[in-house]
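Supplementary notes for students who missed Thursday's class. We covered one full example, reproduced here. Read the sequence, then the structure, then the short commentary at the end.
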Amino acid sequence: MRTDPDGTDGDDSDRSAREWCDEALTRLNAGRPDSALEAARRAADLDPAAEWPHRLISLAHERLGRDADAVPFAERAVDLAPGSWPARLRLAAALRRMPGRWAEAVAHARLAAKFAPEQPAPEVMLGDLALLRGEHAGAERRYRAALALDPGHPQARVNLALALLRWERPRPHHDPAWPIGPRETGRARRALEVWSRQARLLVAVATVAVAACAFLLDLGAQAQIGGFAVLALLVPLTVRHARRVGLWSYVPAMFGRDPWLGADAVSAAVAVAAYAAWLVLAAVPSALDPVWAGLAGIAVLGWPALAAVRALAEMWRGRPLRALAETAPATAAERTARRNAGVALWIVLGRTWSALVMVAAGALVVEPRAAVAAVAVPYPMVRGYLRARHRGDLPLRAAAGLVALAGPACAAGGLLGSAWAWRIGLGALGLVVPVFAVRAARAWWRGGPGPWRSSLLMCDLPVGGEPSVGLDPEVRQAFSYARGVVLSYGDPLGPRVAGAVASVTSSGELRLIAEAEVWEAVEEDPRVAVFASDPLQRRFWVEVRGVALADADVLRVTPKQVQVGEFPGRHQRRG
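Structure (token representation):
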């Protein structure tokens, strides 16, 4: 007797390689990747030619955070069974985390989709690869294709909602297809962000200090000299951060992928230029008062203005109501779906609040009766809230109730001229701000998801652990000793059949020798079916459906499905 890594007793000699694989998959599903890795290694030792154990070893390494260790085993699984769609999918999942190997990941995922067009997992993987690059339209198309095959697929549901929300990956400046890793571009991004932050803060503080000294203390000349000293201080600061950037050839592409990063850097440069011009023109402020004040405003207010524009743009980006409709079916079973639904509701709430503020402000300034439009503004928010059935966020419910109250109250104030109705509506809108602040502070304190876009998560379920199709001894015997084997394959003119010579490898892969026209056909559509009959008693037949790929002078067929049937007659029953 011996003790398994999971604490159970058993006998190693009584378990086959496939039984160890089943055990490894069970442990992976139970959240024990260390124990699963040990079981998968035992399966690989018992049957080194089988590809399933290597896929499970790769998956266990990935679950343990060892992305680099997961790749070689996934590649070995593809070498052993090049026509296996789970092996291709496992390799795609492992390669997408490796710098410079993004194109390979896409190629393997496309092969998996070609080998198994009836499976949703390859389409989901292609959607994930597109989503991580910010290709939202392509990701949406792939996820919808996966849902057409399996309407209940949770990962496709959750990530389709992210595509509709125009979700940004955690490192939006980085292109996974670049040959450099995210750490290198991350260092460049941090250097640019720190420089822009320090430069804008310095010129803002210096502008206020110089203006205060000039107008309140009557020290204009001395203040101007001090202002130029701050400007001189920016030179070594800029040089130091420019050296830290290093990857200047990638900076324009980083700005293209993350426009807000570029906006930060450009706004900092504009603030410094405005500050320098302000110092030069400060000697004659009486002649250039508007210009002088405008330059000072750019230097001091540019940062808050950019932050406000970014917050408004983030609030109105994407289609959160459609995202909620797609996420709702998965919220009961998938935790990530519930989390993302809550964030999407906050986004809808922010849109509704900002729209009500604009309607109320316009009505107060132009025509009070125009406030009647405020009645309809909260309707999409209420509809989305009821559809999502989200009940775990008390501040969200409170804020939604305030916004729903503000719309009719402002409308009543505009139509009836009631000051109290206006006070109730505007007061409700004002109370939303502290409610949001309390919710944000609670999320910050607890380290949980906040009511903002950065809290959205991508659903990333493990892939590539599906069991391989095994051939039992009876099937092996049929193909090893059959006098005639029939190969069915696709052709532009329709299905075709041809004779072939077959053999079975120890790993359960079929090796076929067929005519040249078969080779040409399987290059376009590798899905084939191989038929053989019982060579000894001729009582039953075997059909193996799989994927055929050319290798040297043979076709390698990886089984996807095995069917065994009986010929009609008095020997239909087998004991």
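Commentary. The chain is about 60% helix and 10% strand. The beta strands are 2-3, 9-10, 485-489, 496-504, 510-513, 527-533, 540-551, 554-566. If anything here is unclear, bring it to office hours.
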